[in-house]
Amino acid sequence: MLNYVWISLLLIGIFTAAGRDIADEVTNPYRNGVPHNARIEHSSRSASLHPTYDGVLLIPASDFAAFYGVAQGSDVRQPVTVTTLASGAMRLEAPVGDATPGFWKEMAKAAGGKEKLEGSVTAFDPATGNVTVVMERVSFVKIRAVTKAAIEYADVAVTISLGLIGVMALWLGIMKVGEAAGLLEALTRLMTPVTKRLFPDVPPNHPAVGAMIMNIAANMLGLNNAATPLGLKAMEELNKLSPKAGTATNAMCTFLVINTGGLVLIPATAIAIRAGVGSADPGIIIGTSIFGAGCATAAGLVAVKLLQRLPRYKKELEPDPAPEGKEA
Question: Of the candidates 138, 173, 208, which is a domain's last residue?
């Protein structure tokens, strides 16, 4: 089900981005193909067959705001270079820097994350500095941003996953050694007084008890991936004890509450993720994690035990009918 939710959110994001890009094509907020009159001052010309002019593009704040429809607090004084090509056409390059207006920075980023804006010069008078520029085309900004973000976060996911391998391998190995050494049985005996109170309907020596204890232990160590198969095994065994297969019993609800509460002593996975992304103190979350998860688990257990006693939720389950040809 969660997969359908994620794919739905992704499709919504893509269609929303595409819709906004189509709207931008109609309204043309980046003024694609529209010439803009300005002036270049303090220009210097290189002595070559195809001269190059360096100077400062000057645009009054009111003209810039009126042209792009955005607020501009001060006059634009953007360093530029006008290059004459072999064909006789002229190109303008504006490196992105502190003097670059915020809207142009967005345009440069939308144009491919370049460190400069480019445009074609349709008219230029070196004597007066008057220039007419058509800036490079900017289109499909939102859909490109969605695509870029998807690729970047895919890279982040791989990086984080690789960083988790060591931690997961260590703790999974420790748990496997402990299981082979008989620690599971010892832990089951040690936890018997607690499991009897939490799960009075489950026999003490039932396989579900061992699976639940190992699942809770893995969660308490922050090994969520290791806890998942153990939790599935515990639910499978608890389902065998249900008079009506597929219907949640009190024990199943209680076990689900403990898992949802996320009782933890060492949030190993979270610590590994924080360390992987460069946190200065990855382990600082231990205290708050224990307190928050402890409160959540306690509240969940109180709620599930109270609701089990209410007549509205207390229902006697009738056993499944025996298959034809067999005695019940």
Answer: 138
